[in-house]
């Protein structure tokens, strides 16, 4: 269990006087950290923590058990809990910080707690601060510092602090060296009057030059006024700082940070005389924060407000996608429609929420209880449009965000409750030092050279020239301090006033540092180029050996040619560049489908009916004419152990088939296709061969004569997982570079914008898997042209993605397996996945995907044919199906009957367990922590979904009602498979 978090203030159990700040935690992503001399830069083990001691500065990695907590860092907008596995979370509204300090030079302490609001920051500006000038909002990107140093001979000099590592009170022989920052010319000049000495001491620091990127302009200006307001200059000297208006919300302070008291009368002071000039006297009033205690005011999801010591709360590291708090603007998505609403109160243990709708529909209630599983707090995908791309405008605003205020009578131009975001980072800021070489360059060099020029050209003796940044009234920009349940937003203005503003009159600021972070993330993305290749149209499918200009269909009947080929003899691919693969020979081993499981402890290889063919002579003809019975047992064991067997019901269908035409609803149907090369055809031959003999009974694949580059697969969710009996359809494309590059997958998501059904299956179609090149992994897990196959990819999806505890498929969450927090989040994720996958069954039956219509209806709805009647195909197959392509038979009412019974039984069990706890209202204590008895792993035989919350029941009942109608209509029509045509 996690004991400490980033920025925690702690002390050693063996010495209360030794304080430290937590800089690294074991739960952080630390894979692949390079070897470094820094003692903190190594991978941490669970239970370890990296700290920096104050004031010693020593850094080390220790056991969490060696420390106790002093104080915890929160800021307005932070999400917290009372304990890690509590279902109730809260949002921090305000912080109330008190500090203990000591003088920076003399170390004289003030033996009382001082409220933070009675202090000033040690510097007038900090990197990341927002400033205003001439109707423009800018952000401090870089600062150039000047230091005041007293040398061993008593001289006091103002020097450039090129290293930015000096602090007031820093004493030692390297003070001047640090100030020079490795610049030999500067070091020579500043040390010529006195030798380096351990008595050298830094008496003061100030910012001499600021680089400001101007992001966006006042939104109350008319277009004509905006056009004449040019961006202000980027470099500002200290004497110009009083022309700026600072916009800063000071909510916390770090241990070791410099501050000054607003009331200097009660502050200790040290005086330093320049022994060279015998006249200059420097007074130092800076204080160092040596201890801190924080109280936070929290708004809990149930609407209660509470002020508590920060150390009694824990950060909520992984809020789920449905988490929201009173005042949040959200979308309620159900039945293919969405409504806008404001959250009033949430019952997180039962996953229900009270909403106040803001869309003004007179025919609908204004306030209603809804399932959290139907709430979208982010607006990532809008089901009212057909555009699967994320919207650039998020829903509402968040506490702590900066926002522009539009004039009364005007709006931000977006559809409520979406709020646009503006702010353009200037081009010079994007010219940054190389992250690969870590060499200086870009705008940092400009600031360095300009600042050095200014300081080195001046008289270096004498005190700092006082500078200040005045507070000026600004009514068009501020930060979000609260969200009201009537939908209005409380904005705190720079000069201290507060205003209630309607959401439609706000535009969020796109922070410059956030833009830099996003830019770096995009630069290091390992997935971007691949996804760009998947979705845009217009690329012709050209083979490296037979490039052509036109687009040609595959030759008619080519699949039949493949079926008739001799399957014995040499299996190597012809017409392939030997350098393209490590082995120099294309050889698909069907047994390699098991390789995926080798690096996953406790995961057994898939067991295929009749075993895997290991050589050419054992492979049966490509298309079997005998239907294979569906074995309801899962094709593979899950990480938690083997799954349960289901009842011994039979269903007959053809696992692999090649149909005449591809369906128009195929994700890649509109992609152009060129004439295939011989090497492609030979490789396709081998892929078909592997699929025809190696597919488990719960995976169906269809190929197409007119589009050999396309396939469609249907995977039935394994037993005792949240995906049990649900259909998962994935479209595949083999592009021009196949098999040198992996097949391209597109997952057909039917979540209606209500989130991902699995961490690896995205709503936009992306399938995140190492073998597909959409996730970084070990070389043994990635696509290898000479060994990997489409069969291996399919089995990987069923065996490694559609698992019993999908929450832990997210790499960052695997390390929380076995913790109370991990157990809670996994349980909630399983419920979501279960409810959403029941919706997949409904969607598949309402609008079956092309070329799988009969298989889906047969699996879920078909009744038993008359005794002794053998069927050769499903009725009603369209012309795209080859004759006799699909067969289905099962006893009973079809799998839908089992789905309905299982879901209804689960609802009854859940209602009996929870009783009256399904109401939405204030909860005084939330759910009891699982940690009281200790988290236990989910036993292999335990049900994946032991019970449902009230919110899960609400959402599931909507689906079950429609599924029951489909079953009833199917019963009335009594569909049976026709007898074999004579």
Automatic annotation (TrEMBL):
It comes from the Eukaryota. The keyword Transferase applies. PANTHER family: (E3-INDEPENDENT) E2 UBIQUITIN-CONJUGATING ENZYME. Residues 867-881 have a biased composition (Basic and acidic residues). This is UBC core domain-containing protein. Residues 603-647, 863-893, 914-946 are annotated as: Disordered. Keywords: Transferase, Ubl conjugation pathway. GO terms for molecular function: ubiquitin conjugating enzyme activity. The lineage of its organism: Eukaryota, Fungi, Dikarya, Basidiomycota, Agaricomycotina. CDD domains: UBCc_UBE2O. Residues 679-842 form the UBC core domain. InterPro entries: UBC (IPR000608), UBQ-conjugating_enzyme/RWD (IPR016135). PROSITE patterns: UBC_2 (PS50127). Residues 617-627, 914-934 have a biased composition (Polar residues). The keyword Transferase applies.
């Amino acid at each position: 269990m996690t004991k400490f978090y980033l920025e925690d203030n702690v002390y050693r159990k063996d010495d209360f006087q030794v304080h430290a700040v937590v800089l690294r935690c074991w739960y952080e992503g630390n894979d692949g950290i390079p070897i470094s001399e820094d003692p903190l830069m190594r991978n941490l083990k669970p239970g370890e923590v990296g700290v920096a001691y104050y004031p010693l500065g020593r850094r080390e990695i220790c056991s969490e058990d060696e420390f106790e907590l002093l104080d915890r860092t929160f800021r307005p907008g932070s999400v917290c809990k009372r304990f890690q596995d509590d279902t109730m979370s809260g949002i921090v509204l305000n912080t109330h910080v008190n500090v203990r300090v000591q003088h920076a030079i003399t170390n004289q302490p003030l033996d009382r707690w001082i409220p933070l609001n009675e202090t000033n920051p040690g510097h007038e500006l900090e990197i990341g601060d927002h400033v205003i000038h001439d109707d423009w909002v800018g952000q401090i990107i870089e600062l150039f510092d000047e230091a005041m140093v007293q040398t061993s001979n008593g001289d006091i000099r103002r020097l450039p602090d090129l290293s930015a590592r000096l602090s007031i009170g820093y004493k030692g022989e390297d003070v001047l060296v640090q100030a020079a920052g490795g610049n030999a010319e500067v070091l020579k000049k500043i040390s010529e009057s006195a030798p380096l000495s351990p008595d050298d001491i830094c008496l003061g620091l100030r910012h001499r030059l600021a680089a400001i990127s101007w992001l966006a302009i006042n939104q109350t200006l008319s277009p004509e006024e905006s056009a004449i307001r040019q961006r202000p200059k980027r470099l500002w000297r200290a004497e110009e700082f009083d022309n700026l208006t600072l916009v800063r919300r000071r909510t916390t302070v770090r241990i070791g940070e410099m501050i000054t008291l607003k009331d200097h009368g009660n502050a200790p002071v040290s005086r330093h005389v320049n022994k060279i000039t015998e006249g200059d006297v420097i007074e130092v009033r800076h204080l160092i924060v040596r201890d801190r205690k924080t109280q936070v005011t929290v708004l809990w999801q149930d609407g209660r407000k509470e002020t508590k010591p920060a150390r009694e709360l824990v950060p909520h590291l992984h809020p789920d996608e449905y988490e929201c708090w009173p005042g949040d603007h959200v979308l309620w998505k159900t039945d293919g429609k969405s409504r806008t609403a404001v959250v009033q109160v949430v019952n997180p243990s039962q996953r229900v929420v009270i909403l106040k709708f803001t869309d003004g529909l007179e025919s609908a209630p204004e306030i209603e209880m809804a399932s959290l599983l139907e709430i979208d707090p982010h607006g990532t995908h809008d089901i009212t449009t057909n555009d699967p791309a994320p919207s650039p405008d998020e829903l509402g605003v968040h506490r702590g965000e900066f926002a522009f205020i539009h004039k009364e009578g005007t709006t931000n131009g977006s559809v409520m409750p979406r709020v646009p975001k503006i702010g353009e980072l200037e081009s010079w800021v994007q010219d940054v030092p190389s992250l690969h070489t870590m060499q200086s360059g870009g705008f940092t060099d400009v600031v360095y050279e300009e600042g050095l020029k200014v300081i080195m050209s001046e008289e270096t003796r004498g005190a700092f020239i006082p500078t200040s940044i005045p507070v000026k009234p600004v009514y068009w920009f501020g930060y979000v301090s609260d969200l009201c349940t009537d939908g209005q937003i409380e904005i705190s203005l720079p000069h201290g006033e507060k205003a209630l503003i309607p959401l439609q009159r706000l535009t969020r600021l796109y922070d410059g540092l956030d833009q830099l972070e996003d830019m770096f993330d995009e630069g290091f993305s390992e997935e971007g180029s691949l996804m760009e290749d998947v979705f845009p149209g217009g690329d012709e499918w050209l083979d490296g050996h037979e490039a052509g200009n036109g687009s040609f269909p595959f030759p008619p009947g080519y699949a039949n040619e493949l079926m008739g080929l001799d399957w014995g003899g040499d299996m190597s691919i012809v017409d392939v560049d030997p350098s393209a693969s490590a082995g120099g020979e294309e050889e698909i081993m069907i047994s390699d489908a098991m390789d995926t499981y080798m690096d996953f402890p406790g995961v057994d290889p898939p067991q295929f009916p009749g075993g895997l063919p290991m050589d050419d002579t054992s492979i049966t003809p490509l298309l079997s004419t005998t239907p294979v019975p569906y074995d309801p047992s899962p094709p593979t064991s899950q990480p938690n152990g083997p799954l349960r067997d289901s009842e011994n019901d039979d269903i007959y269908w053809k696992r692999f088939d090649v149909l005449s035409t591809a369906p128009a609803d195929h994700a890649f149907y509109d992609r152009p296709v060129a004439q295939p090369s011989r090497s492609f055809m030979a490789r396709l031959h081998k892929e078909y061969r592997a699929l025809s003999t190696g597919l488990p009974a719960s995976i169906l694949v269809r190929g197409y004569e007119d589009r050999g580059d396309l396939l469609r697969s249907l995977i039935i969710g394994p037993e005792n997982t949240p995906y049990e009996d649900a259909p998962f359809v994935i479209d595949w494309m083999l592009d021009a570079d196949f098999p040198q590059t992996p097949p391209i997958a597109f997952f057909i998501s039917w979540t209606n914008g209500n989130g991902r059904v699995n961490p690896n299956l995205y709503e936009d179609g992306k399938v995140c898997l190492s073998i597909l090149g959409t996730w970084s992994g070990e070389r043994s897990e990635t696509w290898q042209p000479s060994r990997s196959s489409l069969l291996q990819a399919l089995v990987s999806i069923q065996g490694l993605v559609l698992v019993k505890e999908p929450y832990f498929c997210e790499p960052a969450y695997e390390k929380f397996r076995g913790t109370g927090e991990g157990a809670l989040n996994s349980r909630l994720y399983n419920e979501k996945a279960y409810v959403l996958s029941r919706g997949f069954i409904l969607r598949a039956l309402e609008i079956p995907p092309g070329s799988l219509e009969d298989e889906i209806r047969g699996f879920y709805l078909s009744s038993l044919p008359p005794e002794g009647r053998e069927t050769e195909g499903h009725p009603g197959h369209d012309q795209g199906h080859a004759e006799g392509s699909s067969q289905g038979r099962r006893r009973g009412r079809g799998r839908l009957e089992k789905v309905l019974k299982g879901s209804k039984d689960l609802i009854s069990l859940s209602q009996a367990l929870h009783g009256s706890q399904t109401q939405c209202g204030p909860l005084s204590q939330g759910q009891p922590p699982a940690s009281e008895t200790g988290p236990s792993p989910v036993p292999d035989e335990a049900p994946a979904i032991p019970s449902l919350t009230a919110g899960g029941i609400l959402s599931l009942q909507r689906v079950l009602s429609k599924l029951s109608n489909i079953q009833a209509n199917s019963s009335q029509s009594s569909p049976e498979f026709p007898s074999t045509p004579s």
